[in-house]
Fold:
Amino acid sequence: MIQEGTAQSPVSPALTRSMLRTLGLVATLSGLLVVLSYRITLPIIEENKRLAIERALFKVIPGAISRQDFMITDRGIELAQSDLQGTALYAGYGQDGRLKGVALEAAAAGYQDVIRILYGYDPYCQCIRGIEVLKMAETPGIGDKIAKDPVFQENFTALEARANATGDGLERAIVLVKQGEKSEAWQIDAISGATISSKAIARMLNDSAQRYVPLIQNNLAVMEPAS
Ligand SMILES: Cc1cc2nc3c(=O)[nH]c(=O)nc-3n(C[C@H](O)[C@H](O)[C@H](O)COP(=O)(O)O)c2cc1C
Structure:
């Protein structure tokens, strides 16, 4: 008995070559499209990021009306330049031209994803004066309260971040406490029911301040205008 449809028809070498050529072409075009869309969207993403930081900057440095960008490098703090590698540091100046504070980005893993913030640091009171969430994917109505809850935001009107005597960290670490239990200037009152997101804010602020506050204090003259 003859069975239909089971015989394999041989594929000619010419057809194989043509299929491989087509596959190669499609792969090359796809690669080019990925590179092209990356190159087109990168400046837009960078510009949006710059605008988000600009907007947040004047909120986290109370009284600032102008800014100057710096970089934290291996050598200390230097004026920002396109070819300089390091951590961005934004200095904010008041109406009188005096340094009002600096702002830095900080990040840590939250409940869903990485939370990224900009925080303002006042080197004269050695305290954090405000935070603005730049990016988060925390649960609406639960974790996203870190950005909106006025009681939580109260934590950042004068949160102590004082450099220690040896200049290698903070005198007292920034820590999270249960809601309503804050009794010290370096403590953050958590949001009840959103401890994970609150803890992420405390962790990122402590990690960043432990590292950068002594550096900022030692390099204030670089950012202060000559009087
Ligand atoms: C669907 C769902 C989403 C949640 N989202 C968050 C969140 O975004 N941030 C957070 O800290 N906790 C979130 N939680 C709660 C945490 O699992 C955890 O219970 C809480 O952070 C502990 O806070 P507490 O110690 O004040 O009870 C969520 C829980 C559920 C069930």
User: Anything to note?
Assistant: The mean pLDDT is 94. The longest strand covers residues 99-109. The beta strands are 66-73, 76-79, 87-93, 99-109, 114-122, 127-135, 159-160, 175-177, 187-189. DSSP finds five helices and nine strands in the chain.
